Amino acid sequence: MNIVFLMIIVSFFVAIIFFILFLKSVKSGQYDDLYTPSVRMLFEDEVVEKQEEIKSETKINQPNK
Amino acid sequence: MTKTDCFHCGAECDSKPIYVDEKPFCCNGCKTVYEILNENDLSCYYDFEQAPGAIPQELKSKYAYLDNEKIVENLYDFIDDEVRVITFYIPHIHCSSCIWILENLDRLNNAIVSGIVNFPKKEIRITFNNAKISLRQVVELLSSIGYEPYISLEDTSITKPKIDRSLIYKLGVAGFAFGNIMLLSFPEYFQSSEFWLERYKPTFRILIFIMAIPVVFYSANTYFVSAYKGLKHKILNIDVPIALGISVLFMRSAVEIIFDLGQGYFDSLAGFVFFLLLGKIFQQQTYSFLSFERDYKSYFPIAVTKIAKDQSETNISIYDIKEGDRLLIRNGELIPVDGILINGIAQIDYSFVTGESLPVSKKSGDKLFAGGKQLSGAIEMEVLQTVSQSYLTQLWSNDIFTKKESKTIKTLTDSISKRFTIIVLLIAFLAGIYWYFENATMIANVVTAVLIVACPCALALSAPFALGNMLRIFGKQKFYLKNATVIENLSKINTIIFDKTGTITTNKTNISYEGTSLTNNEKKYIANVLRESNHPLSRMLYGYLEKPDKIEVTDFKETFGKGIYGRVDKFKIMMGSESYVKGSSSNNLQTSIFIKINEEIKGKYIFENTYRNEIASIFNELSTFYTLGVLSGDNEGEKEHLTKVLPKATTLIFNQKPEDKLEYVDKQQKKGETVLMIGDGLNDAGALAQSNVGIAVSENTNVFSPACDGIIDATNFAMLPKFIRLSKGTIKVVKISFVLSFLYNIIGMLFAVTGNLSPIVAAILMPISSITIVVFVTIATNFISNGK
């Protein structure tokens, strides 16, 4: 039944790991701006898509230039 | 005429929009931005939002001073050899397209490493390579795509406020401890005597004890500090019973655990601190895009152009301006000091200062005051006073600006907690005496229990949640308050003083015509001549008249500061000041443009400030409860009109200088009045600071407002009486919730004085009382804001 002892220690350490992660995320400024990342998240795909399109376009156009 | 909207900025286009790629543009500026973006494959800027752009302003050498390393040194966040990091405030940031384009700046110029937008603050942090691009070029690049950064004197102040995240950390620590302690105390609640639980009890208790230590000494330390400060000033604020409760809880629990007497109340303790901090965070509603602390520094530029004796131009810092210097003020620049106009025609817009939207004409030799914005071309001026000595900026040397928050505001919660603390201590004392005779071993037990349940958790939570919620409700209706205390102060006022220009008048100018009526053809000619002129009044009148078809104007002549002349289809059209058109002038205070067509004086267009529509009804509504007053920096020209419109009891005072306004407010306060000041310009700054509650009216909340306690969007000005009523209602809600929380305290007290306060009772009572109070005040405040 010493397993209980082990479980407590494990759960306690898991909790502490998350706690440290939380402190880290606060320190890195994650909670300073709660709005912009939500918008930024949606951009990435569109930019990449466009870039690819443009790349293929410029490839076609290049000989003319 | 069909209406087309500009593809870039969304403004309505003239009769002939410019077409590129079949997209309409209102002006060359917008077209250029589109072309820049298109060339750099950034055209999906237009996909996120419709017409997201702004018309880029012409800059020329406006930002030349940025080349001067000494001046801009303090602007940077970080400087390494070549890598520079700088944060700009860009007022135009308003939609997702803005974020997108600004974060893709590196594709416009590869010397820019990255741009990170903070949308709520309307800020961008740009990292760039100084070897390849100068700061000036960065700013000009931003401006060229319509995102001109706003750089003011305030940005150079060396210490940039650091973001305070300690409250989040504290909440995190308390929350972590609260959850885990609860979990570990669970077995003890059931008081089962199971073998394994009995065996691990000491381990559990030690873990609980360890976790409780940071809660008391870190998370709760602000309460101890505040209680100590309160006691030092002989004030029993709400933090005194809180600190008392926390320390008693901690000591008693520590004793219980160390001497193995019981499990202690660490679960309640951690929960208590957690809820309190939660309330604090909730109350801390911030509007990061607004600033309530602005002084003249946030309006003033960093540098000006100085003209040396040999006519060479140098950029000098504002603080280096000396008496007798010659300055060059370009179109659109702000006059930083008092001086005399030497050269050029000045059209000064003093709207920052007075709220007056019509520009004032000055001719050479006239005195110019700091704070005005030059509108028509470049001027030269000679400095009379340095920055800090100028007419406007002197206001900030007044004591009221240096005091800053030192006056301890006694809040409702504090005044209640004073009595509360005394009563609690009395009960603890009486209970102690009783048990001394009954059963002396119980004394410590009962006295500490009384102090524990007396911990004013629910009491301390009612005000933060009620006020915090109301703050959010106000915010949704574009009434932004600096903090929750303002609501309380607002509920106490009995005198309201308004500024006139810009506050009860709008910044829109009403144009009316007086004289022989003009035919449509004549109007068309007038508009065509006006089109040629860049004078602010001409632009205004041109905007007012219907946009005409273009007819060629010949012989166009503009006499600066006087008027314009032009020929259209054989008609000689002359417009301008009375003396220019008529040859003589009467003493008229009105701003007007006289019209003369072929030798015949037709009449005049009069420019007037318009009063807000709702003014009469607002004043009538308020006059039943409050003493009202209007202070104006203007002459008495409008007195007659105002006395007609406003309630009879309203005090009207004219010709008030900024200092006079401050003194007037002070005088009222000395009479025992609690004053709400409503103003808008920098000239009201003193009065706003002196008043109990100072509220600034702003046509555009993104941009400027003087230091104040609250900012109200001009579109919702009519709701002012409602806002005041709601503040009163909120205070009522807080009072009711106080009664409720007292009930909880009495119930807890019954357990305590009888010596029956077991840890589980405390652990149940405390969260329940807190949560019901929070729910009650939230529902109640929402209800009153919907009801009225």
Summarize the structure in words.
Chain A has two helices and no strands. With 65 residues, chain A is mainly alpha-helical. Chain A starts with a helix and ends with a helix. Chain B is of the alpha+beta class and 788 residues long. Chain B has a seven-stranded mixed beta sheet with strand order 16-28-27-26-17-24-25, with helices on both faces. In chain B, strands 8-7-9-15-10-13 form a six-stranded antiparallel beta sheet, with no helix packed on it. In chain B, strand 22 and strand 23 (600-611) form a beta hairpin. The longest helix of chain B has 34 residues, at 720-753. The model of chain B is unreliable at 404-408 (pLDDT under 50). The interface between A and B is medium-sized, with 27 and 26 residues.
Features:
heterodimer, A: 65 residues, mainly alpha, 2 helices, B: 788 residues, alpha+beta, Alpha-Beta Plaits, 7-stranded mixed β-sheet, 25 helices
Characterize the main sheet of chain A: none
Separation of the first and last Cα atoms of chain B: 45 Å
Query: Structural class from helices and strands of chain A?
Result: mainly alpha
Identify the most extensive interface between protein chains. A-B, 27 and 26 residues
Structural domains of chain A: how many: 2
